[in-house]
Model the fold of this input.
Amino acid sequence: MDQCFLRLQRRLAVITALSFALTPVVGYAIADLFHMVDVARLLHSPLGILVVGAHLLLGAGVAASFYRFSLPLQLWHHTHGFGNPLPDGLQQRLQSFTTRYWSFYLVYVLLISTLQLYSEPTRAWTLTPALWNFMLLQLTIAVLVGMPGYLLCLSNLGQLNQSMGIPHIQVSLKTKMWLIGAYLPILTTAMLIKYHWWRTGVLNNELIVAWTLTVLLEICITTVAIRSLHQALLPVQQVIHGSGASSYLQLAQQLRPHSLDEIGYLVQMLGRLFRRLVDQESHVSAIVDHAAEGIIVVDAQHQIDLFNPAAEKLFGFSAQEIRAKPLRWLLPSLDLDSHDDHRNEVNTPVAHESYGRHRNGASIPMSIRISQIQRNGQLFYSLLVADISERKAAERLLLEAESRYRNLVETAHDLVWSINPLGQWTYLNKAVISIYGYNPEEMLHRHFVEFQAPESAERDGAAFARLLSGKELVQYETIHLDSQGNERYLSFNARPLIAEDGEVVSISGTARDITDQKKFELELTYQAQHDTLTGLYNRSYFQRELDRVIARVVRSADECALVYLDLDQFKYVNDTVGHAAGDRLLIECTELLINNIREGDLVARFGGDEFTVLLYNIDRNHVMTALENIRKVFERYRFLEASQTFIVTCSIGATMIDSQTTSAETALAQADLACNVAKLQGRNCAHLYSAEDNEQSAMTEDIGWIARVRDAIDNDRFELMYQPIFAVHDHSIYGYEVLLRLPTTDGKSIMPGGFIPAAERFGLVHRLDRWTVTRAMQSLAELHQANLTTRFAINLSGRSFDNLELLDIIQGILRETNLNPSALTFEVTETAAIANLQSARKFIGRLKDLGCLLALDDFGTGFCSFTYLKHLPVDTLKIDGSFVQGITQAKVDQTMVQSINQIAHALGKTTIAEFVEDHHTLEVLREIGVDYAQGHYLGKPLHNLLINVGHEHPIRHSLLA
Done:
């Protein structure tokens, strides 16, 4: 602004000096033109020098006077700031501009006239007409020449209005119009007429009349223009001169245009402006009154000036009672003075969090945004206040949840991890120490391939590529190496985090160390596949391997041999020196076999004193040589025990496995038959099976059984019987166990123990399972259709785990009959389940998915029953009858039953005791807490269940009392 004043000073000095300097030049030029003065003679006279000097001196005074004219204004604004109104003295100084400006011209006219009067000594001090004409001419010239400068000076002074304001009009538009529209034209035309009169000496009436009419016309035109201007400015004058306060709406109604010129348009724009202000005022009021946040406006002294309804609701005070009260009433901890230190240059609202005080004294957490407002030159603070109690509570809950999550993650036994798309670890919890033996910091930002076992590299790479494609991993098992180089079996669950563009940005998940579980499963698998005494493969594994060998041989031209070996004197050793000696004999015989067959051939213990051997890739011509070598080794062997020496020989049978071999059952039957032939030949012999071997033996009897079983299946001769299962606690019938029987011609029935071994040996057991399950499920569906609701427990053979067709049959019958699958319980023996643990888990899992229940039969007879129980998802444990029968006499049996029942209940499973044959046994089972019981004492197997299920076979109250 100081630069503006400096420019104004220079402009005023230059404009006034130039206008004043131009006036004598024009005046003397016209005077010379009128022959009033001789300018040439005047300039060469002493008076001319005096006139020029006077003019220069007076011009310098003009320049200096107007250069200093605005200096007091500049000093005032420099001291008091811009925008403040000027005091009266400075206002009067501004109003004196016109007088000061034209006073210099008046001095000039008087001075020039005086000097001109003095230049004529003969007429000195006499006002002649020539001198009077000269004075009028100079005055007219001064007005005409000085008027543009005057108007320019007013225009420059008008630029100060933006900083000082105008308390009242100094030069009206009417005056300017009179000057421009009438006064100046009249002077100009008068001077021209004077010039005409001067030059011609004639001033006729026509010219005077024309001039007079012209003057009157100019006065009329100017008067009309001034009236039109007055009419146009009338709305503005009414607003300016109106008394009292007016609202924006009143001002908008008063400002209606009365002309079609720029002023009318300006009045119209002002009216629109005030209407806009009315709209804005109503909008602002609506916003303030309906704002969800509290709005508080305080002045520079921190006194409350505005308090909207949201603030009233927030603090509990009304606007009337809180206005003009200090802000500390509401926000005692807020320091507005420190706001100026924190706000930025553009006055962006500064956010604070503080506590407000409610009228009832409650303390409320609040979010406060503060900004400054300048209004009428005064400082105000605007505060937007919001209750953040819910947000604070949510943040507190989030922090607590985050803390709990962090504690859970950090203390979890499972590994919680994250990796980036490059495969580098980005997060690991402390479980990494127990799994890998490293601290998390040692593994972070290292690639996971640094820790994988070499054999897992290909599988891990494929799994990682699957994750990068956006897919999840569930229970992915792999092998990694710990800090000591030991293998750790890990089960990973992983999920990729996908950005909006579809790219994987991170992968996170969990991992569990299943090394011990794998070792346990391997141990179970080993136990299931090996004989516990000799360490050889057992019968179950050997039969599966025989199946694989036969399947391979059928597809190739290879030949193998199946050897069946039976010790001749084993029973004699057992009976003479005891079973412990018999066990040692079996161990030594195992060593003889292993040391005297080719490396890679398979040896298994098939039964008590029976061994089987698979000779791979051997032709018929060399089989007998191999058999004879084995026979001779046993013939030379002597078993020493208790100072006695026993000669132990063996009978060996073998059969060829080639493309003509149809099944494992057939091969076993042939090898067993060949062994029986060797025994019939006097023992200590070896025999290779041929088609002519028709000697009578146990195998012949088995073949007869197979014919009877196949005929019974084909002609539907088997029958089902149903033995009730009772709930011990309320004596009600829980369900029925389905029993399979083979009727004979004499009206009796053959128990499963008579035909099942032959069916298993010759591959008919799958057909027998399918027949039993189909007939039992159809019978149960008929009962349910007759509204006789009950449950069936159906026994499955030990080979059913490999029968995938059986699962499809069960699912199909359930779908066709709409039978409730929870009414079906399938029983499998414990020994069969542990012998093929992996297949059993899958088979049981499939049945569970269908909704059926599973029971583990003969529980307690297997190896480490309690240990592997948690790996089999069965619903019921059926306690082996050997424990139940002796429960009243043997404390050990009672303890076993009690332990099985407690562990089953702890695992959420129910228990059934079989072979309950007397009242005392039932009472002991009730005291132990066994859930269900069955046996001939409670109910014998029934042939036709339809006539009994409606009125259940009751037990005498004396039995259950």
